Amino acid sequence: NIVGQRVALGSVPHTVIGVLASDFDSEQFEPRPDVWVPLQADPDHFDGGTIYQITARLKPGVTAGAANAALAVEYARLTTPRAGTPNSVRALAEPLQTAMVRSAQSSLTLLLGAVAFLLLIACANVANLLLVRAEARKREMAIRAAIGAGRTRLMRQLLLESLVLSTIGGAVGLAIGVLATQGLLRLYPGSNPFMLGALGSIPRIGDAGAAVTVDWRVLGFALLISIATGVLFGLVPSRHVGRPELNPLLQLAASGRGASRRRFDPRAMIVVAEVALAVILVVGATLLVLTSIALRRVDPGFKAENVLTMRMAVSGTRFETRAGISELARAGVDRAEAIPGVVRASTTCCMPLETVWQLPFVIASRSGEGLTQSGAMTFHGFGGWTFVSPGYFDVFGIPLVKGRDFSFGDDANAQGVVIINEAMARRYWPTGDPLNDHLIIGRGMRAAYDEEPVRRIIGIVGNVRDTGLRDAARPAMYVPMAQEPDGVTSVNVKLLPLVWIVRTATAPHQFSAPIKTALESSVGQLPVTRIRALTEVVSESTARTRFNTWLMTAFGFCALGLAAIGIYGLVAHWVQQRSREIGVRLALGADPFDIGAMVVRQGMRLAAIGVSVGIVAALGLAQAIRGLLFSVPANDPVVFLSIPLVLSIVALAAVSIPAWRASRIDPLQTLRTE
After folding, report:
1. Cα 492 to chain centroid, rounded
2. pTM
3. C-beta separation of 655 from 595 below 8 A
4. What is the mean pLDDT of the chain?
5. SS3 420
6. Are 168 and 270 in contact (CB under 8 A)?
7. 274: which DSSP letter?
8. C-alpha span between 540 and 553 (Å, rounded)
9. DSSP three-state, residue 14
């Protein structure tokens, strides 16, 4: 019934002409739109602030390569007359899926590899289990064949037993997987639309994980793996089925010497492979854990404790001008600071670790030398650009190193001023004093920035890691919002909502309701949204790394446990098969300690081979995930020395149990049974 009615977006009335279906998937847009308006694009307007993403459906038979070729010709025709177009602007067509998953591709590939390794380790354990069962059932199969059971019937029995086991295991694993997936989705960070250019979440998860469900593909994969495992390893015992040489096999089984020593034992090779895969996973998990720890130790350049952040959209209102936003900032700050427990308040366009604009600048004292030309832009360099109201540096706890801070006197009637950070001061004034210089910011970027005043540098502040904790601080410029031209103000508030930042005396969230009420009542009921503590902003910036670390750690522990079980199972089976031999040795006076040591040596020999192979393979893996690491060398000697030690300790614990049992074998009981 809303079609035809009018709603106001800001202060601009719009008529509703349609309602989209509820299942329309708009996840490629950040943030997901609630309303859609027609794009008002000016084909004659080309500058560095004009960036469009266009989604198109190709005509039947047209490839992406053909589309790019046609697009290049058309784009060249459009841009030829416009000499001022920046060289960095280009047109590129690529599959939508590629564009959506690019930022998450390395993480997804890593997790897919970890899952595959864990599946191989599990299958290796199943293979070893069934090989042991096959060894133990040689005599049974020989008797069945001797009394007339055909090969086909025996194989059918073995397959049925194996399929029942694998199907039950698959069903239990699927049930656990469903529950675990829901738990993991609660740990996974939601999409943050304000982290421009560096999306912090894996796409296609949907709201609250709604897009990640157990559908027919998941069920089909689980069923396929279960059946394939059951069939593949269920046929292992059939190698002895139907053979005519039954008498030697019956005699061998009856004598208790079923475990003839072979130079090549497939079960031992499987255990070696298990240990090697476990080493790879544990090394990868350890490197990511160290990365997560290193990120936690990084100083972002600001004090995140007891700071509350919230956003307010002012586009399409009277606050879209310099005078309006200055009035809004002053009124809101006064109301917020009047609340008991609020220490300081301010406003800004951009939050560190989320969004920072980059603008070109010219150093006024060197305007005739060392300039770079790019289209209509002439500059000495690029720097981060943030417009703020007074109190910004106090709220964030960013130290003022030299000069003075902004005040409400730095308005449109005052001289243009700017504050820079230490990184910019060191790079562009290594031996001079930047406080004696001026900056010309944004000229040639777009028409609105040509109205920017020449700004005097009045202060130097500490560095802030603006784009992420992984990246070093870049040159940064801060300007008072009361001095921004109307055109620049309008562009910024249309692209991003205004950010309110408030430092409180105690835990910030307890002040969210009174601050929200004060801000909304002071500016004509404009809504305040996305209320978060600054610590949550910092946490969101490293959320994907933590998520990958949790998963890889879980996979590493599972792999470690499965490898230990594999070693234990094989060595225990060896002890069981050789119980007669061990009993005879003990009866003849062998030392029980020597018997146990013999068993330990056999098990640890396999573990050592597996660890050696795994370490070599892990070196290759570490190079592959180098891009996911931070402040941790891919070939960290501590990791590559400690992981073999840990695996060796686990393997020693696994083989010690059957070794202890071997040393406790009663020789009289063994010989009596024989």
Report:
1. 29
2. 0.76
3. no
4. 82
5. strand
6. no
7. H
8. 20
9. strand
